[in-house]
Every structure is written in structure tokens, then in C-alpha cells.
User: What shape does this take?
Amino acid sequence: MDSKVKINDSMKRAFFLLIISAGLMLQSFAQKQGKNKIDSLFTVLKTSGPDTAKVNTLNNLAYEFRNNNPDTAIYFASEAKALGIKLNYKMGVADSYLFIAIVLNNHGKLEEALKNNNIALGLFDQLLTSEKTTSKSKIPNQKVKSYNNIGIIYSRQGNYPEALKNYQAALKISEETGNKNGIANSYNNSGIIHHYQGNYPEALKNYFAALRTWEEIGDKYNIANSYNNIAIIYERQENYPEALKNLYASLKIREELGDKKSIAASHNNIGTVYINQGNNPEALKNLSIGLKIAEEIGDKHLTAFSLNNIANILSDQGNYSEALKNYFASLRIFEEMHDEQNIAHSYYIIGRIYIKQNKNIEASHYLNKALLLAKDIGSSEDIENCYFNLVTLDSTQGNFKKALEHYKLFITTRDSMFNKENTKKITQQQMQFEFDKKQVADSLKFEKEKETGALKLQKQKAFTYTGFAGVALTLLFLFFIYRGFRKQKRSNHIIEQTNQELHKVNNELKETQAQLVQQEKLASLGALTAGIAHEIKNPLNFVNNFAELNNELIDELENSRDEEEKKVLFQTIKQNLSKINEHGKRADGIVKSMLEHSRSGTGEKQPTDINRLCDEYLNLAYHGMRANVKDFNCSMERHFAENLPKINVVQQDISRVLLNLINNAFYAIKDKPGATLTLTTLATAHSVIIKVKDNGTGIPGHLKQKIFEPFFTTKPTGTGTGLGLSLSFDIIKAHGGKIEVNSEEGKGTEFIITLPV
Ligand code: ADP
Assistant: This one.
């Protein structure tokens, strides 16, 4: 959207020119086109469950509402953030922080915006370095948005070097990813900063670079904006013909596009340049067209600016009563919009007109009102203006004592403003000097070839400039030391706050992750129950059968007279007892491992026979599957290496991985004739390898990247959690190993785990 920036050295002139900053800000024009998008997002939202897709939809809604309806935007982004944190969906959480930051920035809450933005950036960086993030391609774009938004925040805080730094960062990423729109935005935004710093040649260079890039991609809306911004620089350099040429070029495109708001802005800017040229009739003509359109489309700010500019002409012409009417009309709009900066400024202008009309009571009333408000909002420029005019007013009323008091206050305010204004001017002049110097050098080269006489003159000019630049640089240097000190203190504070917040979010994410892991454990325990029941039932059957058998044998023993028979019976009973004991122990072991499986916290590493673990969990999983899926059957091949060394692992964790992989394999082959699962173990010099292979559905190429992502599942709701592989990945990584996948769609899949010995 158009950022309306007031450029006025109020003592001399108070015209409003409109600079367009592109990128993050939306125009109402584009927002109308976005209406359908919003409708369809709402439709999606209604039908979506509490999953990551919902987080994205909520975030998209926040982004769509970011300008026209900030409260709604913040609401959606906060909902997205809460759900994202609950789901441990970092990308969604990062997006929410970014969108909240954009809205806060557009509504002047700069420090809050910066905090949120830095958290977003931190999360994006974490996601970029995490091996598990799969949709990484989206991140550079989000980082560009982040840097641009941070740039705008710093620019609004008047911290231009930091703003530039961030735009440069955005530019770098855009160039790396070939994001032309991003490149153009960064140039444009950098241009605005150079403009604010008074570095007009550099501003022009950047605006032209933006223009060229937008021309390459044929973005007419922004081409028009570039012409507009270029024109404003020419206007600042008092090159009015060039300014007008560019403004008319911009207007022409805007008329083609039919975007009324920017057409009105063009007329306003054209009018302003005509004022500077002293061509009041043309100025009035354009300002009136701009005003009419602004009123027609109900754009309050633009209406107020146009009224103000028209009032300035009328006041210049000495038509104070008409000027006042327009000033009051624009004041009413500023009041409606609670635009305090401009309310204060309008009070001051009205006071000044009353002085010219010799209406001292009214003048004093408005100047004091302006002073009060300007002090309240800290607008030193208007405070200074008010004091200056109060001095005039007091003097004309013969109240010299008060005039002196006001004069002292005027001087104090002006002194405090000295640094701010002067730095700007010094920078402007210094830049102009650099620019002139270059021109001098160029012409010197040219002149040298022709005649040497002119050379002296140029040197003299350069000499004068050098002297001036010396003074300017000293002042600049002193100012930066002072400002740097204050800024450093403030930004340290912000960085500290941001770090704390980032820490908090990280902890929240960690906590939910721990909860999720526990949930997943319980879920897989559920899937195991059938297998466990089967496994326990077997030894229990043995125990019961042998106990019954022993009862019968003891009866026989009681009745037996034959010593030889008695001996055999004893022997058998003893053997049976040891079988009972053996199977009882087995049941005990199964219960223990079941308990271990669901226990939270980190287990101890212990030397483990991987073959045994594989065998056990293949059995458990198989019976579990058969209990859940009627008619499930498959052949299972075990290729276990005989020389497999025991390795140090957390048994419960590795068994969880095996269970996940085997269950996934069963799921993939469950409807396949000739379904086979092959479990292989191998030993190499430094590692133990486990391969879980199936001849099932396989994984489509484009999904291979995603399967390790938390919550990614292709299974129907209620069947899959999408956490199995993500957890497995973490577990194997924590053991210093790796997990790889080979898969061919329709043919089958093989997961290969490598664990260090
Ligand atoms: P879940 O099993 O709950 O879906 P996982 O993280 O274990 O979660 O698996 C994620 C996805 O990976 C599965 O939904 C499936 O699409 C795919 N997948 C995993 N293993 C296999 C396999 N052996 N064959 C085919 N697809 C698989």
C-alpha cells in the first residue's frame, strides 16, 4: 500500500508528497482482488481440523487482512501461532510471528513489531539448519519478507543505517533465489532510505534499478510507483521538468490500470510540483482532480492531504478565509482518523493563518493547542514552530516579557533539534558534494583535452567544497558518537528482550515436543497391545498347561508303587517346573519391555543383541497386525548376521524404531498378494546395519523428502500420527547413526539403519 509520507520543512512550506514504498504494504486495489482469496480461505478454514494445514490457512488469512483489518489479522495470526505451538509446527509458528510483526509495524507499534520479527527470523534460521525441514524452499521468501519488514521498522524509527542493512540482506537472498520482485522491492526500499538521508544520487540509482527490474517482469503497478518515486527525487533536486515528466509517465500507467487511489495520488504530486514552479493554476487544477477522486473513493488521508495542499496555495495567494476553510476540513479528517501528528500540525498552521489575519485570540488559542499536543506526542518540529509564532504573536501584542520567554524556549527546542536537522542537511550536502565532485572529475577529464584554463576554476570549486566537507564531517562524526551511544543502549535492550522471547518459544516448542513423543509412545503401545497379548498368552498357556500336567503327575506319583516309575514321574515334574519357570520369566520380560516402551525420559544404553531385538519386535508387530487387520498375512524373511557384535544402545528406543519401520512395512504390503517383509542385519567394520524391506506400495518421489517431517502421514485420520519416522530419525541420530530410505512407487521400500559399533 502507499505509504503516505509527509515531507515538509514546515517553516518554509508544508506540501504533502506521496512516496510509494513497495513490498510489504498492500494497496486497496490489490486487496479488492484478494477478496475472492479470503472467501475461499474461509471455506477451507470451516472444513479443516486442528492440523498444520489449518495453521497455514489461519496465517494466510492474517496476511490477507494485514492492512485493512489489523485486529482481525492479529487474531488469525495468534490463533495460528497457538495451534502451531501445540502441533510443534515450527514453520507455521514462524509465519505467525512474521505476520504479527508486519501488522504491528503498519500500525506504529515498532518495538513490539521488531521483537516479533526477530523471533520469526530466528525460527526461520533454525528451520533452515534443521535437517528435518523439508519445505525449505519457502524459507528464503519468508526471510526476505522479514528483512524488509525490519528495514521498514528501522526506517520508521529513523535508524537509517540499520534499515539499509536489512534491505541489503533481503536483496542478497532475493538475488540468490532469483526472486525479481524481491530484488525490485529491496532497491525501492533502499532508495527511500537514501532519499530520507538526502543522498539523492544514490536514491535515484536505487529507484532506477527497481524500475528496470519491474520492467523486466512487467509489473505495471510498481513501474508506475517507481516513476513516482523518481519524480520526487527530481522534485527535491528542484529539477521540476524531469519531476513532471516522470509523474506524468506514472499517471499514464495508473490510468491504464484504473487504480483510482494512485491516480489521485499522482494528481496530488503533480499539483505539488506545479506549486514549486509557481504555476498555481495548473497546481490547483491537479490538486482539485486529486481531491475529487479521493472524496469519491472515500480515501480520507488522501482527501486531507489534497485539501491541505490546496489550502497552502490559497494561503500563499493571501486568500486566508478560503485557506482556513480547507485547513479546517482537513483537520476534521485528521481528527476522525486520530492522526495526532497531523492534527498538531494543522492546529499550528491554522494559528499561523490567524496571526496573518490579525486575529490574535484565535491565533493564541490554536498555537497553544498545537503546542500542548506537539509536546504530548514529542513532535519537536511543531513545538519549535509554535514557539516561534508565539514570539511573533506576543511581540505584536506588546507582551515583550512573554515574547522573551517564548524566544528562550524556541532556542532550547531548536538546539535540541539541531543535531537531527543538521545531520540530515549535512548528509544531504555531503552527498551533493560527492556527486558534484564526480561531475567535476568527469568534466575535468573532458576539459583537459580541450583547454587547461578551465581546469583552475574547477579545482578552486573542489577546494571550497573540500573545506566545507571537512567541517561537515566533523559535525557528523560528533553526532554519530552521541546517537550511536543512545541507540546502542536501546538496541541492546531490544536484543535482550527478543532473546528472552525466543528462548521462551523454544522452550514451549520443546515441551510440546516432549508431550508429543509421549503421546506417540502411548499410541504405539496401543498398536502393540494385540501383539503383546498374543506374546504373553503363549507363555501363559505353557504355564497353565504344564501346571495342570504336573497336578496330574503328582496324583499319579501319590498312587504309584513302582520305584522306577516314581523316579521318572519326579524327573518329568521337575522338567515341567523348569518349563513353567522359563515361560513365566518370558511373560515377565514381555511385561517389563512393554512398561519400558511407554516410560518417558531417557533410557540407559546397554550392550544389546540386535538380532534378538529384531526377532522379538518382528513377532510382536506381526501378531499386533494380525489382531488388527483381519486376514493379514505375509511371509517374513529373516537374514540375521551370525557374527553381529553387541552394540550399546537404548533398547527401548531402538525397539521403538524397529516397531515403527516394521509396522509401516506391514501397512504398505497389507493388500498386496505375495506380500513379503525382509528383515536383515549386517555387520561392517564400524557399524551394525539393519534393513527393513517390503514389496508394498512404495513412496512417490515427491513425498520422499517429506516422510521424516513431523505430522506427515498419508494414512487416514485416526490411523497415522505422522510421528513415527520423525521420532525414529531423532532416535537414530541421537545414537550417532543414520537412517536412509530407498523406495520405488508400486514396487516397495527399504529403510536402512546404520548404527556405530
Ligand atoms: P505414520 O505411519 O503415522 O503415517 P510415519 O512417520 O511412520 O507416520 O510415516 C510417514 C509416512 O511415510 C506414511 O504415512 C507413509 O506415507 C510413508 N511411509 C513410511 N513407511 C513406508 C513404507 N514402508 N512404504 C510406503 N510408505 C511408507
